[in-house]
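#dry-run=false #mode=assembly
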Amino acid sequence: MSTDASNEVRVAAVAAATRATRAAGAETPAGGGQPAPAGRRRLLTERNRPLWMLIPGGVLMIVIIVLPLLLGIYMSVLNLDQYTLRKWISAPFIGVDNFVEALTASPLLHAVWLSVSYSLIAMLVTLPLGIAAAVATQNAFRGRAVVRSIFLIPYVLPSFVVATVWRIMFQPEGVVDKALGTIGIHAGLWLNGPQTFWTLILVQIWASWPFIYLLALSGLQAVDHEVHEASALDGALWWNKLRFVIFPYLKGPLSLAFLIGMLHHINNFTLPFVLFGIPAPSDVEVLPILTYVTSFQSFRFGLSAAMAFISLILIAIPLFIYLRAVKLDDAETPGGKK
Amino acid sequence: MRMRKPAQLGVIATLAAAALALSACGGSGGADGGDGKGKTLSVLVNVNGQYPEQQKQWQSDIAAKFKAQTGADLKFETFTSANDELTRIQTSVVSGQGPDVYSLGTTFTPTAYATKAFVTLSDDDWKKVGGKDRFNPAALGISGPDKDHLAGIPFVSRPFVMAYNKDLLSAAGIEKPATSWDELAAQAKKMTKGDVYGLATGYKDNFDPWKFIWAMSVQDGNPLIDGSTAKLDDPTVKKAYDTYFGWLTKDKIVNPASVGWSNANAVASFAAGKAGYLLMTTATSIPTLEKSSVANKFAYALMPTTAPGETAPKGDGANAASILSGDNLVVADYSKQKDLAFSYIKLITSKDEQLNYQKIFGDLPANAEALKSLTNPVLKPMAEAAAKSKATPFTGAWGDTQLALLNVTVQSIPDLSRGSVDESALDQRIKDAQAKSQASLDRASKG
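#status=ok
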């Protein structure tokens, strides 16, 4: 999840910053020097927005996202495989057959279930971890910079590297087995069989908790000084302060983190692919793996496109919530109140 | 942005192809005709990870010779993994342009053939590459669906053999390497002592398991695919799995850790002197073994050709010492310089070039004369295996079948590591594999 997620961090950071600006803006009403984000209050300029400047980005969006998406949808109604690939435009049209096959005669639903449950479990574990780490490094102490840097290591490592290292550690009689062996635990196979599901979750947690940590940190930094002072004056102890004063501030960034993280996990191909190989043990045959195998091992491009489309719809649900969340966030009254 | 990846998975190749087609309609290939001056022939080959420097040298040498012969330039493009290759082929197939000549693994040739994007050679074409009879007849076994429709031109053979540790064998009083699977197990049992095991093999390898099942089944008279019928539910297949898994669960002649091994781990274990036999290996293991602690103690032999429980090979079994393995060359159908492509193939499949290639990279010649002229005793069993290689079924459904066979092992590994494979679970897995293979065959017959 590392590389793609950086965009999300930026988005979330901007959202947080915007809120902070607004908070400031509430005190010093929009002056001449106020920069763009306060667009909503400057309706006049909205009319003359230089929309043409969106053209380069728009063209890229169309070429990189919209066209493949449309092609993918088109492919999903074709009987496109190794036999028809060469003249794929004229591959036989078979309507919804691919979708029917994907839903009834393929492990797609099983894969969906695996993907969603694994993502959710990984997410539920990383959330408290990330928050705890963010809270722990919120106040300055000696060596804080070092600790914060160390926290980011799993996040900056490419997924491929993470998965390779873990795969080596999880080999039968590998480092993990030996370490557990010294305390008398014989855990069995990590890379095959039912336990693979938990292996995947474990590695996913290791790789992705810093993402939550980062977003939680950005949320914490948006908390005004006055808030800390006020709660101190009111005599709130640390837990009460955390629970009733600080956490509400984190609700926004963390719900974003939750959604983005879920999407990442559901989409994560590299991790299971490198950890378990192809064919994957049936306990970790998650959506991206299934789509990949269908496409590039069985050459059922049409069927695979149908699967991809179904998973797109699946992912569109949290995506929709995410977009709504961002929008609501923007429309909110200034002040970062939750 | 999140939606990109899943959509991408299915679509990326197509999009890339479409974009390519749009942007490069008037690209390569314009001129055609007589001599090759000013033309460039483009060839796609896999990167040789073991000998990268030598490969570059070989390529520039061949390019110089090719230029001297035809006047045309030679451009090599490389791919690093099977995936890479596949993407490349898909893109070229869809867009109708790309390399003129491809080097393909043998088991991938049927799939490539199914796309109809490569030239099926006419008698005339065969003459242009030096005649069909210049090749080892066995090597032509996976060039096409029948002998009149051949698209793959054999380039090198990489047959599978087994290596054995001479010291361990003689210490156990074994005179000759086994020729039947039962004998192999019996010998291995004698050699298994302490941390030394009779056999080294990797159950988690991405390819080896299906090759064992294929070999034992074929030697038992079951070709796995018979016309348009999959025969994975045949008792011979079950017996093959029982034998293959039994080495670990019943005979206990392989290291229990091998449930997590790939072929490389097995090689390492054999190289450390911890195994009597190293199964399913090729000439590429020579450099590793020559630098190891078993340097002067190893030799190669044909793998058994008598199916488990039998006393002699059935049917064509004696000729199924190995899957037909190696590289084929195919010429793209869209190529506008097919004659040049054939000249190139003629050059690199000539006796001298094939021997030279063998010397540098270890792969065996597909050229019959060159193969016969090999005198190195280490290579003898390999040359024999090359002649006794049998092609895997030539159908576009083979990829799925192979994957299904492999999947049975993948899903059985937890059982294996617990020490016994549940009978009914194995039956169910084989049944699934049969269904997958049959479904794929049904598509093939329609396609």
